[in-house]
Design brief:
heterodimer, A: alpha+beta, OB fold (Dihydrolipoamide Acetyltransferase, E2P), Ribosomal Protein S8, Chain: A, domain 1, 3 domains, five-stranded mixed β-barrel, three-stranded antiparallel sheet, 4 helices, 14 strands, flat, B: alpha+beta, Ribosomal Protein S5, domain 2, five-stranded mixed sheet, five-stranded antiparallel sheet
Chain lengths: ~200, ~250
């Protein structure tokens, strides 16, 4: 039985107060706050559109935008900022540097504390919708592997929607990623992207 | 209100466009019409045509406009120069546009979960392409849908509609001519889940009894408008799940 239904903000999820992500409890009842798909059995609400909320363990790509006394502030293309503590950085960073890092924890204000940061030299970045990132990576990295095999480019995808590419056919990779983003919901996408990548290689 | 050449607005119990006093104009809503916005919607409410884009939450700039405890809402309502017969040709918002931007902003400050995004700003742009009375209500209804498509967490999807008074009859959802010659105009925005009133303006005179009738009329109309909003939000995804079933 398929128990998944689409809910809009303000829809009643449960008559009892239940702790569900992206839901609020008012008068001992639980209501949805986002447009999402709700699994009644597992009590799980997944947003269909929107924002990235930093979660512990997420691998992100960000741009250093401020140098402070003992930390760097990182733009994550999200309503929240990232922070890298200077003493955990091997090479000095500068404004505009692209870094790959892991979210260690999220503090009360929503700022993500980043660790294991690594500077990415050169390359090109594009911004994708965070809600489409899982499709760009694919199940067990299939889509991402196909992209880097097809274009011979090094591609790194941050969970926050920033994608870094270097070497190979970056233009083709960009085109493919934009297409994945637009057709994310349609079946048989992997085959179409495969065709797109291989067709260009022959020319 | 009203002039010497006031037209007869209600003939044999029907209005100028053939509607009953408590009948809405046809409403159609489309979502995700602007590619570069985080959320967007387009509404056709009778002859009103309004497009709405939502951006954010993003860093509030200049920084002093932000609030370290919650997000701020920035809203701009504007009429296109070609939207109506009157003059809207000058650049920048006029007194009326400033007022509507302010009341719309206050509606959404009470609908969005602002405390989740400290120091950020959410921008709402409402552009009226064609107007035929009741654009502030249609704008709020459209902006609520646009906000929901952007994934910004909200308590509810509010709707707005206006009720007017002609002689002793209360009429729902006035168009331009009715608006110009009516004796009173009361636009109300309601959060349908709780029934809270988020916007209440009044032009003209009404009695206490009439006011409670107006609120009841709007709540009844809200069931229809709310269904149109929800259907518009769900439509793209339900089409996809239909395709997967085959």
């Amino acid at each position: 039985m398929n128990m998944i239904k689409i809910v809009v903000p303000g829809d009643l999820l449960d008559d009892k107060p239940v702790h569900i992500e992206h839901a609020i409890i008012e008068n001992d009842k639980t209501y949805a706050t986002v447009l999402g798909s709700y699994d009644e059995e597992k009590k799980r609400l997944v947003p269909l559109e929107g924002l990235w909320y930093p979660v512990q363990g997420d691998i992100i790509i960000g741009i250093v935008d401020e140098e402070k006394l003992n930390s760097y502030s990182v733009n994550l293309n999200a309503p929240y900022k990232g922070i890298i503590v200077s003493k955990f950085v091997e090479t000095q960073l500068q404004n505009g540097d692209v870094v790959e890092a892991t979210v260690k924890e999220v503090d009360k204000t929503g700022t993500a504390v980043l660790v294991r940061s690594r500077k990415l030299f050169g390359g090109k970045i594009i911004k994708a919708k965070p809600s489409k990132v899982p499709r760009i990576i694919g199940k067990q990295d299939t889509m991402l592997r196909q992209l880097s095999d097809g274009t011979k480019a090094t591609i790194k995808v941050g969970r926050n929607g920033i994608i870094w590419m270097k070497g190979g056919d970056v233009a083709l990779a960009t085109e493919a990623i934009l297409r994945i983003q637009e057709e994310a919901h349609t079946p048989g996408l992997t085959d179409r992207i495969k065709e797109m990548l291989s067709g260009n290689n022959k020319v | 209100m009203g002039g010497e050449n006031k037209p007869e607005l209600i003939v044999n119990g029907k209005r100028l466009d053939g509607r009953m006093p408590d009948e809405l104009r046809p409403i159609r809503i489309m979502t995700n019409v602007i590619k570069n916005a985080d959320g967007s919607a387009y509404i056709e409410w009778g002859d009103n045509k309004i497009i709405c884009g939502v951006y954010g939450p993003k860093e509030a700039l200049p920084k002093h406009t932000g609030n370290p405890e919650r997000a701020v809402v920035k809203c701009r309502y504007q009429m296109a120069p070609f939207s109506s017969l009157e003059d809207h040709g000058r650049t920048g918002p006029n007194r009326r546009a400033h007022e509507i931007s302010k009341v719309t902003k206050e509606v959404f400050e009470n609908a969005i979960l602002l405390e989740q995004f400290p120091g950020n700003a959410i921008e709402i742009y409402i552009e009226v392409l064609q107007s035929d009375g009741g654009t502030r209500a249609a704008g709020i209804t459209c902006a609520a849908v646009a906000l929901a498509t952007s994934g910004i967490p909200m308590r509810d999807v509010p709707f707005a509609v206006s009720v007017g008074k002609v002689g002793n009859t209360l009429i729902l959802d006035m168009n331009k001519i009715e608006d110009n010659y009516s004796d009173a105009d009361v636009p109300i925005c309601i959060s349908p889940r709780t029934g809270e009133i988020l916007l209440l303006q009044m032009d003209g005179n009404i009695t206490r009894e009439e006011f409670s009738t107006i609120v009841a009329m709007i709540k009844k109309a809200g069931e229809k408008i709310g269904k149109i909003q929800r259907d518009a939000l769900k439509a793209p995804y339900e089409a996809i799940s239909e395709r997967y079933k085959r």
